[in-house]
Amino acid sequence: MPVEQTVRGVVLRRRDSGESDASITLLSAELGKFDLVARGAKKPTSRLKGVAEPLSAGTYTFAKGKARKFVTQAQPERGFPLLRSDYDRLNIALAFAELVGEVAPYEEPSDELYELVVTCLRFIESHPKPVVALVWCETELLKLTGFLPSFAICTVSGESVQEAEPYISPSAGGYITFLSANNFRDRVKTKAEILYGLNAISQLAAPPNNLKYAQETLSLLTHFWQHITESKLPSRLNLLKAISNQR
Which domain holds residue 31? Predict the structure, then answer.
């Protein structure tokens, strides 16, 4: 009989698997990120229906089959109920979960990453300006995963930001001076205020109440995330489009 194991986890994404099953990617404190199959989760009466949705949180008991792991029991926790009742916050949370799903390594336990994700989802759920919360969450995720760009110092010359419209380069690892910019094909022009804001927010223990150019900051970070993940990040692009349409 397969040995069962129980973990605390948050569902990062869900995919259909057959007619009635769902394949979920779970981020757990104990085992890191891994995939599970929730049998029958697509059925309206399934006891696993609610706990197999993206951003669901709880304790998951699973057994390992020959090739895959299967959910045998799941107990939902408080989770993030306000995300379900606010379409904008839900889209923001899903975009963040998409990032975590891309950068978290498989089956490498990390209490720190798990706690960060839970903390970030709570901030996105409760902050009066969830886009500002998302920017802070992303800088924390960049720090934790070792990908935080240099926002204040040129990665080539070591000079601080001087230009009103400086360049960044994901392949260079952050800010680059005008003289260095021609050496990087992925250079993107931005505003000095955005880089100042990113540098400041990356040093805070919690999201600030406000952030000037929050949408533009999120767009700028997209260049870094797409470079890091080598993915187009569809949930993120949909979020940016939705935010742009609201202006």
Answer: 4-76
